[in-house]
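Q: Here's a chain of 184 amino acids. Please give me its 3D structure as tokens.
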Amino acid sequence: MKKIYQLILFAFLFALPFKANAGICDTLGDWYCTIRSNVIATWEEHSYDAYVPLYAWHNRLTYDREHIKKYNENPWGAGFGFSRFDEDGDWHSLYAMYFEDSNGYGETMFGYAFLKNKYWHDVRLGYGFTVGATQRHEYSYIPVPLPLPMIGIGYGRFDLQAAYVPGIKNDGNVLFIWSRIRLY
């Protein structure tokens, strides 16, 4: 039943209208206006992406051996998103992923991502952030806010991207790595 709930929420997110009241933009300030306009631009003018989760590395400096042995570091799953490159060559995305978490349960991750890109010939190196939500078994699949730092390297239609989930001893401190393929 919980997997059905997750899949329905996953599909619903891509049907949401992203236009917000202009008064909210005035109240919250420039940073909100910038993100809001980038989300709207990405929603309206985008290419389609497929995501494939690759690895969930648990930081060995913050986990004891017992936890490392029991955790899953192969997050089988998939995702879909919309993305665009702006006039500066920076990347913006609206995405959703479903994958197997560290404990073997289903997890969703969805939101907005931004990478400030630097180019070296045809190779992109980017750093930025993702803001959104995740749903995990331990939280009864209630959406939990997800602001994370992010990096990426890309060539043509293919990217390798990662986000770091900070944490405490034996919890969090995970480098989540996935591939992104621009479909068209």
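Q: Can you summarize the key feature?
A: The helical segments are 2-13, 22-28, 30-44, 65-70.
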